[in-house]
Amino acid sequence: MSVRDLRTAPRDTLLYADVAIIGAGPAGLAIARELANTSIKVLLIESGGFEFDGETQLLNRVENVGQPSRNEASERLGRGYTASLAWLNDIPAFELRNRCLGGSTHTWVGKCAAFDEVDFRQRAWLPGSGWPFPRQSLDAALERAADLLNLGPNLYDERLNGLLRSPPRDSGVDHHLLRSFFWQFSHQRTARGEPMRFVDVARDLRAPNIDILTYGTVTRINVEPSGRRVTSLDVRSLGDNKASIHARTVVLCSGGVENARLLLASNSVMPNGIGNGSDVVGRYLADHPRTVIARFKGPDIDRVAEHFGFFGLTHKGRSHFYLHGMSLSPELQEREKLMNCATYPVQTFASDDPWAAVKRISRGSGSRLPGDIATVLRSPGLVAGGLYNRLIRKRGLPRKSAELRFDVMVEQPPNPDSRVTLSRMSDRFGTPLPKVDWKIGSIERESVKRLARLMASEFTRVGLPRPALAEWIVNDGDGEGVFMDMAHPSGTTRMGTDPAISVVDADAMVHGVDGLFIAGSSVFPTAGHANPTLMILALAIRLADYLKARNHKTAAPERDDARDGGTFSGATS
C-alpha cells in the first residue's frame, strides 16, 4: 500500500485506477478491504489525513435552514455525548462529519444494531417506503460486518436472552405493545473499552493493489458528454494543488450530506447535477431525531436498572455487553400508523460514584487521587458487588447515579421536502455549500409520545416505578418538544427500482450512469431507528462483492505513465 499527500505531490498529478473510492470512512474502507489483494487497482481518496485536522474540518460548513434551529433548548439537549466527547454536542447540526481516515468512527461510541424486518417493508401508511430487497438477503453481509466491527452475536431482540449470562428479568411489559431491543458496542481488538477506530483498518490495508491519496478533496465528478458513463474526478488540496483521477468505476462514500452535494455540484454536463434527472438527489433527507422522554431518580433507579441496562455474554472468548431498551412493536406501528422508534437508558453518575473514581485511579489522574481513593474506600460493597456483577453475572456495573433517563431515537418517513440543495455560499474551492433543510413531522412526534405513554402505563401496570415524562409529552405540546440530529444523515441518494423516486438501483449504481456507485447511509430508502454503521458496512460489503464480479469482466482503463504522477508512488505505509 502506498500513501500520497496531495499537498506535497507534483502539480497537476494524473492518476489511474480501476476503482476510485471517494471517502475513507467505514463504507469506503470496508469496500477497499474487501477488494484488497485482488487484481483490481483501487485508489482511496480522503479529504483529510490520518489525524483530525481543524483546517480540513472547516470544509464541513453547511447553510442550515431547517431543524434543529440553533437555540438554547437544542444546545442544552445536545446529542447525548458525555465525558471526553461532550464537545461534540456543540457542533452545529449536520456539520459533525470527520474528514480523516476512519471517518465517523473518530467520534463515535461504537453503538451498533441491525435494522428490523419492518424497516425493509413497503408500509401502506408510509408512501415511498420499502427496500428493493428483503432484510434476509443481507444476513450474510451483516455477519461479515459484525466480524469486522468485533461484535458479539448479531441478535437484537428477545432471542438474545437465551445467550446472555444473566438476562434481564422479565418485566411483564406487554410485548404486543413494547418489545425488547438491544444495542451492542464495537470495540478495538487490542484496546478493550476503546470504540473501534477505522483509521486502524486503513493502516492495516497492506495490499499491493490499494493506494491512498490523503488531503485530496473531490470537487467534481466528470462524465461523458452523453452523461451515461463516469470518466474522472477533479481533486484539490488545501494548498491548492490539483489532481485528476481516471477510473472506470467510482464509488462515492462521503456521507449523507456530501454524497448529495457532490452529485449536485457536478453539473457541467447535466445542469441539475449527476443522477438528478428526476430532481431526487438531496431529497428524502432523514436523520434520527433524539430527545429525552422519561426520568427516574432516587431508589427507583436501581429497580428499573434490573430490567434495563447492560447485559453481557461470552462470544469467541471475549465478553460483549448489550444495552437493553424498548421499541414500539411492529404490530402497534402498523395498527396505529406510527414510525419505528426505540428508547434506551442513560445514567447520570453521582459525584461520589466509586466506579468513576476507580477508572480515574486506573488512568493515574494525579490531582484527584486522594479524594478518589477515599470515595472507593467508602463504598467497598458497591465495588465488590460491581466486580461480581461484571465478571461473573456479565452485568453492567452498579453505579451511584443522580438520575436515570430514557432517550429515544425515532425513524423518519420518506419526505421529499426534507432535503439537501446547493447554497449560494461556497467553500474555499468554490464548491457551493450544502443547504440543509431537515424537517421533523408530526408522525415522528406522535410515535415518540405513544412510546413514552405506553412506557408509563405499562410500568405502572406491572409494578415498576412510574417515570416522570417530559413536560411536552404530558401537556401534549408538540411545539415544545426539542429534538436534535444524531449526525446520522441518510436517504439523500436513496435506493430503489424507480428512477422517479430514487437515485441508485438495487446494486447501488446511479440510475443511467454506468460505473458510478454510492455507498453509505445516503442510499437507505428508510433509516429505521438503529444507529447506521452496521447496516452501512453490510451494504458496503454487498457492493464490494458486486464490484469484484463486475471488474473481472472489464479491462483496466488505458494508462499514460509517461505523465508525471501517472504511476502511484509515495510514502509506503
UniProtKB/TrEMBL annotation:
Glucose-methanol-choline oxidoreductase C-terminal domain sequence ranges: 414-540
Swiss-Prot/TrEMBL cofactor(s): FAD
Region (Disordered): 553-573
A family per Pfam: GMC_oxred_C
Chain ranges of the FAD dependent oxidoreductase domain: 18-256
Bias (Basic and acidic residues) ranges: 555-564
Keyword vocabulary terms for this entry: FAD, Flavoprotein, Oxidoreductase
Stored InterPro entries: FAD-dep_OxRdtase (IPR006076), FAD/NAD-bd_sf (IPR036188), GMC_OxRtase_C (IPR007867), P2Ox-like (IPR051473)
Family assignment from sequence similarity: Belongs to the GMC oxidoreductase family.
Protein name per the record: GMC family oxidoreductase
Lineage: Bacteria, Pseudomonadati, Pseudomonadota, Alphaproteobacteria, Hyphomicrobiales
